[in-house]
Amino acid sequence: MVCTILQHRDYHNTSMALEGVPELLQKILEAPDFYVQMKWEFTSWVPLVSRICPNDVCRIWKSGAKLRVDITLLGFENMSWIRGRRSFIFKGEDNRAELMEVNHDDRVVTTEHFDLSQEMERLTLDVMKPKGREVERRLTSPVINTSLDTKNIAFERYAFRVCILIGFLTLLSVLTK
């Protein structure tokens, strides 16, 4: 029974994800090219807590139907953050896409190719039947949903004046203390 439920759920999630990819590719293509650098950090007033708080600089480039995301924060293990230099490069065109993960530290590139028309043809309920170990693993691990809803994705330009205003107000509050 559990095997059948997982099989149908996986089939549904995969087919929904594949159906949304052409629309997502079109939205990426129509959006203007950009570069964004986001620096974020968590801090605490409690001594030594700030040392375990995460921070990173995420850089995103968009050109045509291509996206590149650079990150340095990879995970958390044994009470410390795992760092490394990684790039994720997405190249989309028509019904094909390519996703590359570049590990700059180890000088390794992993590439996945997706041909949506072939993927949709190969997608059948029988193909999605989980193996015994997979069912066992899913029953003993927490439920994690990693689906991407492509219907509500939009690319919008953020008003630069708002960033200047927020920066000025932050600077003003620091100077008045």
UniProtKB/TrEMBL annotation:
Localization per record: Endomembrane system
Protein name as annotated: Ankyrin repeat domain 13A
GO cellular component terms, A-Z: cytoplasm; endomembrane system
Keywords: Membrane, Repeat, Transmembrane, Transmembrane helix
Main localization of the protein described in the UniProt heading: membrane
Domain of life: Eukaryota
Coiled coil, from the record: none
Transmembrane segments: 158-176
InterPro entries attached to this UniProt entry: ANKRD13, ANKRD13_C
Pfam families documented for this protein: ANKRD13_C
PANTHER family listed in its UniProt record: ANKYRIN REPEAT DOMAIN-CONTAINING PROTEIN 13, ANKYRIN REPEAT DOMAIN-CONTAINING PROTEIN 13A
Natural source organism: Ailuropoda melanoleuca (Giant panda)
Keyword Membrane: yes
Domain Ankyrin repeat, first and last residues per copy: 68-158
Gene: ANKRD13A
Protein's UniProt keywords contain Repeat: yes
